[in-house]
Write a structure and sequence with these properties.
The protein is mainly alpha-helical. It is 64% helix and 0% strand. It contains eleven helices and no strands. It is elongated. The chain starts with 9 loop residues before the first helix and ends in a 12-residue tail after the last helix.
Length: 193
């Protein structure tokens, strides 16, 4: 397997690195770190996929992972963010908050997916920043759905922020708003709508 990580066939190299990263991490940590320092997109993807299967990232420079959350390849970006959530939470949290403040809808969707799949323990923390993002005027239906899908799992009362969307000109936005308002535990304040 050690020989196969130098193989020219990317699939063989990927499988060998994933096996070694999972079962013999100390052997490949420096190799993975060197791959992260490079600019070869195929190797970066192989590397973050291999790291995704490890139980630690000791020996990996967090800055090498951090820079990948700005990579143009969406899959690399997503996996890098998941790695940060898993192993360097404070750093991931800082970037996720900044992404939610941005106008990049795809990156905001990535944050929602990451929270929903990999950060459920902190979902109550994320409710307010997500609702702040929701109140921006540039939201598309998919982002509204993703944000509310996360927020409605929290204890946050989102009635005040979501109610104005019930009067939005876009049918799906109104429909989503009513749907998620229906998920509120306390529906007594809905009578005014």
């Amino acid at each position: 397997i050690k020989i196969l990580i130098s193989h020219k066939n990317q699939k063989i190299k990927k499988n060998a690195l994933q096996i070694l990263a999972k079962f013999y991490y100390s052997f490949v940590a420096s190799i993975l770190n060197n791959m992260l320092e490079g600019n070869n997109e195929d190797e970066l993807l192989i590397c973050v996929e291999a790291l995704s299967n490890t139980s630690n990232v000791d020996g990996i420079d967090e800055k090498n992972i951090e820079k990948l959350i700005f990579h143009p390849n969406v899959k690399i970006k997503r996996l890098a963010l998941i790695l940060l959530v898993k192993f360097h939470y404070a750093l991931a949290k800082k970037h996720m908050i900044n992404i939610l403040k941005s106008s990049d809808e795809e990156d905001c969707l990535m944050v929602c997916d990451t929270i929903n799949l990999h950060d459920k323990n902190n979902i109550n923390y994320w409710a307010k920043p997500l609702m702040n993002r929701l109140t921006k005027d540039d939201n598309k239906e998919e982002l509204i759905w993703s944000i509310m899908d996360v927020v409605c799992q929290s204890d946050y009362n989102y009635l005040d922020e979501l109610s104005p969307l019930c009067f939005n000109e876009v049918d799906d936005v109104r429909r989503y708003s009513y749907y998620f308002l229906g998920k509120l535990n306390d529906k007594s304040s809905l009578e005014s709508l």
